[in-house]
Fold this protein.
Amino acid sequence: MLDVSKLINTKDGIQSRRIFHDQAIYDLEMERIFARCWLFLTHESLIPNTGDYITTKMGQDNVIVVRQQNGKVRAFVNSCSHRGARVCAAEAGNTRSFVCSYHGWAYGIDGSLQGVPLEKEVYNNQLDKSTHGLVEVALVDNFCGFIYGCFDPAAPSLREFLGEAAWYLEAWMGAPGGTELIGPPSRSILYCNWKTPSENFIGDMYHVGWTHASSTQVLFSQSPLMALQGNASLPAPAEVMGMHFTSRGGHGAAITYGGRGGLYTTARENEMLGAWLAAQTPKVAERLGEARAKLYNSAWDGTIFPNNSFLVGPNTFKVWLPRGPGAIEALTWTWVEKDMPEELKRIIARNMNQTFGTAGMLESEDADNMESMTQSNDGLVTRRGTLNAQMGLGREREDAVMPGVVSDAMINELSHRGFYRYYQEMLVAESWDELRANSSKWKKVHLER
Amino acid sequence: MTNHNNEREVTREVRDEIERFLFREARLIDTEQEREWLETMVDAEIKYQVFSRQLRYRKDTRGSGDKEVYFFDDNYADLDHRIGLRETGTQWVADPPNRLRRIVGNIEGFEGERAGEYRVYSNCMVTRNRMVYEQMSYAYGREDILRRGTDGKLRLLQRVINFEERFVRGKNLLFIL
Ligand code: FES
Ligand SMILES: [Fe+2]
């Protein structure tokens, strides 16, 4: 019998290796996490007009996300109510209807069944079209223009789901002029469990100097991150360099103070971004306060639970779509600030793709680790063991300004522990009420030694 | 790809030269001699692009935003950085070494827009062996411009690849295409 309450020991920072392997755990993740959590769909900027749509996945469910006549965004399962064929084969576009390629049933952009070929002749007008619309995704909402969907009508609002993380995310998603994604995404397969990139992005600054030793040396010579190269020493104590946070809902990030600029190989590009950040910083400080103006200028790696990761600095935005316990589809966009000059947007996108796109120099370095940390657990004896995420244990604290639980070191595994804390809670909990019952005391396991 | 039936084909002599160029290039890249490739076969003004186009319906010409994402949009310095990674000695993804093997075919050569430039089309099949178990293959078409330098030698001035595999099953494209 699978006892999911034994998979994670948050207090001691220990995880069972079986979470990267077992089909039964994966099936439960689909049911308890992917069918209940808010999942990233697309960005407002990618479907600005009525009839604009994209297709993507929530867990392994295919969905269409489409802008309605009234400007609202709705999402539907991309499967025909007749015999289940796909109703949209394109990745994106603009349309008035979705027509199934099997027998031609036609649906409006509101998901309703509009047309049935030979309806009179073959159904004798007995088919009730009103009950044969596309299955709708229960909840769709956006945070700072980033659109998320949720299959569970009983789920908390997106804002509540993000919890304390919203305060942090606003520092970059809520840039003064707004943010947007540059589409289309690149798409590639990785043979890893979906949690391995989620945990890598949520706060693994430890690997930067080692996994990315060659790329930090060659590409980041003008960045403070260069100092990490080779994991030999730190230029300043880790607590001076940055921080970690975790939140109620398992979202977290590692933040390197002042690290957002300087990541490009040419001085001109670095100066251009530097000038932009300098000009925006007072506006951020005025709107959001000094603490978040500091975060706006920092480099981040973070994950929004469960499978949506981002970097501030390289400006990567990713979603890791599960394809069974041992494979994912990685979708990658560039995010930029809407009111940046067009040239700066192009510079950011070019550099993002060179580092974290499909031919990205750092992306491929990460992939090997994610795959081997998944595949090693094919071994029966190997997966009986546990994994260690104890870095920074005992240094967690609350802060007067910054919400959630924080730790004053950016090389840290606090956000890993928070991710798996919530992961286990989601697997165990039968209902959102059960989860809410823990909400007043979730910090204890991190703070009490 | 456009129809180039009206373009002027290069002479047999130049065609042979182009073919030798592409074969030598393939050998250098596949045998970890990318530095030699860059220094002896690539023009300092190189534009090297590989893009992927989002799949939309044929009739759908509306829709917003970019339709392409550029995996590579490199100049000479960018290619130099990519090649420089292995030279650091700490590029773990290439250690043990990757093994590449490519077949270049369907080569066509036409006179370019400017004197001393040639427009060259070719198709490529690449197999990449990585570590013990990984084998991936890639197929794509290339549209190149070769330029004859003052030393009389051909160099790669532009390469544009429309990478048609929308969902990249070979994980990544971290090699010279
Ligand atoms: S399955 Fe869609 S029309 Fe029959
Ligand atoms: Fe990484």
Q: What stands out?
A: The two ends of chain A are 31 Å apart (CA to CA).
